[in-house]
Design goal:
The chain is an alpha/beta fold and 256 residues long. 42% of the residues lie in helices and 14% in strands. It contains 12 helices and 8 strands. The structure holds phosphoenolpyruvate (PEP). The site of phosphoenolpyruvate has 13 residues, from β8.
């Protein structure tokens, strides 16, 4: 990783934990982070919607941030079951995951709806974490670079440089999410460097150099150090390993 960029470790809790478990996990993390005075990584927790405000109250006045796992692609109105960015703002969310592969696969989210969500999040001052990644079939047929380029072009490259620089990119190969399969360091570095090259071509070298690009997909406290030491990997979006305070804390400490 490069020292000029923000180091970020984000925990995606998905649809796990009771409120009490979520609060205990947060309390444990708060205690551990307070003991780590020299750690300069930025930590984000992405709990289910219904716990965001509880977690926000717990992490207020700490270095931890809280975000949402999704948002509506409309600003308000008759959209039963949806949650808008203004609502997220009002309960304390400062970031939102957009285009997670589980949303793309199970809820048919398109790059275009991701683009709408990114616009709305930015209007509310909420940081979009735009998730991109190829499936196993796409990698096996050597389509991974085309897929990533398309997801960037259609989902986020409509932004001007100033707005783009407020966003975080998370590269998450779909075949590595929740499977125990991790991209090899070579595969991760190759794709992160490719993403940074596309950002340079679309915007400029400074914008690309300042953009935090996270790796996600079975990242854990055993492999985080190696992944985070790669020149174009600026941290991780962590699923399963973010549900236990000790393993998540070890990942937070994995930057060299
Ligand atoms: C994720 O869901 O963003 C993720 C990376 O999950 P896991 O770490 O469990 O593979």
């Amino acid at each position: 990783m490069n020292d000029s960029r923000k180091k970020i470790v984000a925990g995606n809790w998905k649809m796990n934990l009771s409120l009490q478990e979520a609060q205990s996990l947060t309390a444990e993390l708060l205690g551990m982070i307070q003991d780590e005075k020299n750690n300069d990584s930025h930590v984000y927790l992405f709990p289910p919607f219904v716990y965001i405000n509880n977690i926000y109250r717990q992490i207020q006045n700490s270095t931890i941030n809280v975000g949402a796992q999704n948002c509506a692609d409309q600003i308000s109105g008759a959209y039963t079951g949806e949650t808008s960015v203004t609502m997220l703002n009002s309960v304390g969310a400062s970031a939102v995951l957009i285009g997670h592969s589980e949303r793309r696969t199970y809820y048919h989210e398109s790059n275009q709806s991701c683009a709408n969500k990114i616009n709305l999040a930015l209007q509310q001052g909420i940081i979009p974490f735009y998730c991109i990644g190829e499936t196993l079939n796409e990698r096996n047929s050597n389509q991974q670079f085309n897929i990533i380029e398309k997801q960037l072009m259609e989902g986020i490259f409509h932004l001007g440089a100033e707005e783009f620089s407020k966003c975080v990119i998370a590269y998450e190969p779909v075949w590595a999410i929740g499977t125990g399969l991790t991209a090899s360091p070579d595969q991760a570095q190759e794709m992160h460097a490719f993403i940074r090259k596309l950002i340079t071509e679309k915007y400029d070298a400074t914008t690309a150099n300042n953009c935090s690009i996270l790796y996600g997909g079975s990242c854990n406290d055993q492999n985080a150090k190696e992944l985070f030491s790669l020149p174009d990997v600026d941290g991780g979006l962590i699923g399963g390993a973010s549900l236990k305070s000790r393993s998540f804390m070890n990942i937070i400490k994995a930057f060299q």
